[in-house]
Write a structure and sequence with these properties.
Elements lengths: L2 H12 L4 E6 L5 E5 L6 H13 L3 E5 L2 E8 L4 E5 L3 H13 L2 E5 L15 E3 L3 H7 L6 E5 L4 H13 L4 E4 L3 H13 L4 H4 L15 H17 L7
Parallel strand pairs: 5-6, 5-8, 6-7, 8-9
Antiparallel strand pairs: 1-2, 1-4, 3-4
């Protein structure tokens, strides 16, 4: 591999940027295509598919064969609120291959005993997200029902273009949330990305069922996320 290409690949990994290493199998030349960089035609479509699925494969474009090596940052789910829904989400996320962490300043809820094997922060979201900022490969689920805890990370998720932003609460609760977000400088277009009520509409009632609905909606958002390279 060209040392310059390798350097760019390592930088993309460090920056949690998705990319595809495109190798021409006829002459051995390779180049790195970052997500968002436009590549037209059949090759562009194949690169987009690799970015969406995260799967590497060989493709035939005309008379030339390419190998597309997809490099995607591991998707990260940040849940605001150490509640029963979150307890049920944690093992589902792990089985589905998603890193999940919990943030909740309420130390009575955010305990290792309630979330064994899960990365948990018994701190305020602004403190945690300062050290571990959100990005486009993060999903944010706010489930505390407390605007003092939920509002800041929701706004941050929208500003950092997280692939999924969901918030628990009734339509009335969400309407008040929208007013606060608008006052904080969040645009209506950004606010329209919030999934509220949170989770796919499967008629979920129990915390366990809501957890399934939220995880399903998160996975759907990740696999169907928009890519500028289309």
């Amino acid at each position: 591999m060209d040392p310059l290409v390798l350097k760019k690949l390592n930088q993309a990994r460090n920056d949690r940027k998705a990319c595809v290493l495109v190798t021409n199998l006829d002459d051995g030349r390779d180049r790195l295509v970052l997500e968002g960089h436009l590549v037209e035609g059949e090759l562009g479509a194949a690169i987009t598919k690799a970015l969406l699925t995260g799967k590497s494969s060989a493709v035939q474009i005309g008379e030339t064969e390419f190998f597309l090596n997809a490099h995607l940052p591991p998707p990260r789910i940040v849940v605001i609120g150490a509640v029963h829904i979150t307890q049920a989400m944690a093992p589902i996320a792990k089985m589905a291959g998603y890193d999940l962490e919990v943030i909740d300043p309420r130390t009575a809820f955010a305990t290792p005993e309630r979330f064994e094997g899960t990365n948990i922060h018994a701190e305020w979201p602004d403190e945690v997200l300062k050290e571990h900022p959100l990005d486009a490969y993060c999903a944010l689920a706010a489930v505390t029902h407390d605007p003092k805890i939920d509002d800041f990370p929701i706004a941050q998720a929208l500003r950092h273009n997280c692939f999924y932003v969901g918030a628990l609460g009734s339509r009335k609760t969400h309407a008040k949330r929208v007013e606060r977000l608008l006052a904080d400088g969040i645009t209506q277009d950004q606010i329209d990305r919030i999934k509220a009520p949170i989770g796919l509409d499967i008629g979920a009632a129990s915390p366990q069922e809501i957890a399934v609905a939220v995880m399903a909606e998160t996975i759907e958002a990740f696999r169907k996320r928009g890519l500028n390279s289309i």
